[in-house]
Amino acid sequence: MNHLIAPSILAADFANLQRDVEMLNESHADYIHVDIMDGVFVPNISFGIPVCEAIFKHAKKPLDVHLMIEKPENYIQAFHDAGAATISVHYEASPHLHRTLQSIRDLGLRAGVAINPHTNVQLLEDVIEITDLVCLMSVNPGFGGQKFIEHTYTKVRRLKEIIVDAGANTLIEVDGGVNIDNAPLLLEAGADVLVAGNFVFKSENPIHTIQELKNVQF
């Protein structure tokens, strides 16, 4: 399978959100990554359901919604209604993770689990067969523009082994500090989806930058 690119709209120009969404529509991006932060689970507040709805209104790419919030199970239906195609909830915020993943799938969405840099991938073994995507945080969640954590390569390899051993079809997504230098190493380790925020939106030509990430070989 060719790898997928999911630019993070968190790094877009919020004063020109429609323009940036339409730019992504014209690019080779596969998804639009939407980071939802509540200021409780992570030390930042991004945007919520109304902005997700606004993005969906203009988007021609599926929305990959990453809930960095407490009690994510209470908002699954709302983000489904707001246009999410994938919803990822944090392992660290989900005491009833199996039930939450199943409720996402019952709505016809792809179910994802996100894990913080300190969380061991082996903790996902019991849910990997009902997990469509694992979002490995390669920075500490809450802010864009952070430095990539090098241990992520090892986590990708370990997670890939768990997926293969289970005979699952789970995708591995890496989120945080992804750029043209570490992308080949991540793909070689087993990553399937690359999330890039500042690297895309702060570049002189975001469409070209997305194409560069899409063309990465390893």
Describe this structure in words.
The protein has 218 residues and is an alpha/beta fold. It has a single domain (4-214), classed as Aldolase class I (TIM Barrel, Alpha-Beta Barrel), CATH 3.20.20. 32% of the residues lie in helices and 20% in strands. It is built from eight helices and eight strands, in the order βαβαβαβαββαβαβαα. It has helices at residues 17-25, 49-58, 76-81, 97-106, 152-166, 183-189, 198-201, 206-214, and strands spanning 4-7, 32-37, 63-68, 84-90, 110-115, 133-137, 171-175, 193-196. It has an eight-stranded parallel sheet. The longest helix has 15 residues, at 152-166. The model has no long low-confidence stretch (mean pLDDT 96).
Layout of strands and helices, then pairs:
Blueprint: E1 4-7, H1 17-25, E2 32-37, H2 49-58, E3 63-68, H3 76-81, E4 84-90, H4 97-106, E5 110-115, E6 133-137, H5 152-166, E7 171-175, H6 183-189, E8 193-196, H7 198-201, H8 206-214
Parallel strand pairs: 1-8, 2-3, 3-4, 4-5, 5-6, 6-7, 7-8
Organism: Marivirga aurantiaca
EC number: 5.1.3.1
Protein name: Ribulose-phosphate 3-epimerase
